[in-house]
Amino acid sequence: MDDRIINAIRGWLNCEVSENSSYIHLLLNADGTNLPEELITYFKDAHKQAQQKYIDKINEFNLDPLNQPPIYTAVLPLKTLQGYLGEVFGGLIAITQRPFNLDWEIPVHLFSFHDTVFDWLDMYLQNAETSAEIPGRTGDDNLAFVRNENNEITAVLFIEAKCTLTHNPSLINDAHSSLSKGNIFPVSRDKIKQLLIEKGDSESLNFVDAINNIVKTQKNRFDMVSYLYSKKPERKHSWISQSEINRFYKGNRNLVAAELCITDLLKSIDRIYRKGDSND
User: How far apart are CA 280 and CA 179, in angstroms?
Assistant: First the structure.
């Protein structure tokens, strides 16, 4: 990611760190009324391949693109957009805050593989009845990687992301439980490779080579819960404990729990996903 974008987003995020030998807690706050343009740019890029898939579907139906929503996320249900927002922010926190003092990379986002969304869009473009909610995508929410100077992936950060407009403690517990699975290597690695090959630039293809050898080179799996909300606790400092690992986490690995409160979260979603790429 461009250093200018990293620095702008890092400057927008206010972060308080608590840590011990195997657990890091990040308490972040951000002003949703003052979203950096670099943040909007990053979200646009995160959805670029999925956006092209939407355009291809418009062309398949021979529809006038000028008469369609400019971005595919503009018509999706709010709950789906909350999930998307949480997944992207989970990765951004990893990149900007560098948990475990590692330089994390996120080569692609997996939105193109949210098949139920594109089935929903197919129905929408046919003016057929659509459901109020869309089932989530299976597999990893987000993945961050560390590569060494030999283009070898040495560590992977598994990110489980949750987002609520208020506060929901069951989401926190579910996220910790989901991260407890025993696999060391990410199940979505072939999908990441497919997207990187689709991008086709030299850096993406270089990353494909690294993923091809991940089973040989990866030494560590790290875990991260990312919890995004807009309702701050009134009687305690944070929703997730700053010193004790959640009882639903059984992974026995290095864990980071990041919680981010964004003011005016609903307006932020609207700006990013419904108006961020239009002329409104």
Answer: 40
Q: What is the DSSP letter of 213?
A: T
Alpha helix ranges (H) inside 151-232:
169-178, 189-199, 202-212, 214-217
224/245 Cα distance (integer angstroms) = 12
pLDDT digits (tens, 9 = 90+) for 232-254: 999 999 999 999 999 999 999 99
Supply 61's token pair. 């139906």
Give the integer Cα–Cα distance in Å for 229 and 105: 24
**Inter-CA distances, 190 with 33, 139, 146, 160, 260, Å:** 38, 11, 17, 19, 30
Helices in 47-112 by DSSP H: which ranges? 48-60, 78-97
Token couple for 186? 């990410």
CA nearest to 17, candidates 262, 253, 242, 245: 242
Q: Could you read off the pLDDT of 62-77 as tens digits, one per residue? A: 999 989 999 999 999 9
Q: Closest by alpha carbon to 274, among 116, 40, 27, 61?
A: 40
Comparing CA positions, the residue from 71, 13, 74 lying closest to residue 44 is 71
Is the dihedral angle over the CA atoms 100, 209, 1, 239 positive or is it negative? negative
pTM of the model: 0.95
